[in-house]
Specification:
alpha+beta, Endonuclease I-creI, four-stranded antiparallel beta sheet
């Protein structure tokens, strides 16, 4: 009875923390139908790979490079919401302008939880890459109530070890979420004539000083020079540093 976009919208509303009753009233879809859709994409006792963080002793995600990239995406444009009966909903917003980034995000989410279905929910100007799992708080202990810039954000020791090994993947995830590569220009006098000079620059913008600190710590680790452009912007403009960023990150695509 319902097309896929209608189903995805209802699931996305539940993922925002809404109750089944409120979603049913807003959409006109029965609670039973919404519940059945949730059961299909988020089975509670599904067989498959266990959560490495729930093993004894807890271990790191199996693909640590993919996790470092996903961590950057989550810190920038991701959130986790409680859905129902101990299941959580990971949602990462990706702009429609960057279809390759959306694919890379979906691949990283699928790599983290290979036995769970990854969905793409279309919203105005962007897609939400989404996935249900009981274990997202295990993967991202930074999950909590309130906006990220209004609370403390710090890596657990096991996350820091991954970032120390894969700093470029974290940087790439952060740039893909809250960063950009742009071309600035200025003028200089050459042989008595004013000429325009174009140069590339990377910007990273985030309201959380903790998250910008994680970004600049990673830049320091890989030898990229940076400057604090203002209270929430980090700039990379030196030629050698931009060249390094181009090799390992590059513009969004």
């Amino acid at each position: 009875m319902y097309d896929m976009s209608t189903r995805q919208r209802a699931i996305a509303l539940v993922g925002q923390g809404r109750s089944l009753n409120s979603v049913s009233k807003e959409t006109g879809i029965s609670r039973a139908a919404i519940s059945s859709w949730l059961e299909r994409i988020a089975p509670l006792n599904r067989a498959g790979l266990p959560c490495p963080r729930c093993e004894d002793p807890p271990g790191p995600p199996r693909d640590q490079a993919a996790y470092a990239y996903l961590l950057g995406l989550y810190l920038g444009d991701g959130c986790i919401s409680a859905a129902r009966r101990g299941v959580y909903f990971l949602r990462i917003a990706c702009a429609d302008a960057w279809p390759g980034l959306i694919d890379a995000c979906a691949d990283a989410v699928q790599t983290a939880r290979p036995d769970n279905k990854v969905c793409r929910v279309q919203r105005p100007g962007c897609q939400y890459v989404t996935c249900f799992s009981k274990h997202w708080p295990c993967f991202f202990p930074q999950h909590g109530s309130g906006k990220k810039h209004e609370r403390s954000i710090a890596l657990d020791p096991w996350q820091q070890r991954i970032v120390d090994i894969h700093p470029w993947e974290l940087i790439r995830g952060l740039i893909h979420s809250d960063g950009c590569r742009i071309t600035n220009w200025t003028t200089r006098v050459v042989a008595g004539e004013k000429k325009r000079y174009d140069y590339p620059r990377y910007f990273f913008t985030n309201l959380s000083t903790d998250i910008t600190g994680l970004y600049t710590d990673a830049l320091d680790k890989v030898g990229v020079g940076w400057k604090q452009a203002n209270s929430r912007n980090i700039s990379v403009a030196r030629k050698a540093s931009v060249a390094l960023m181009d090799i390992h990150v590059g513009p969004k695509y």
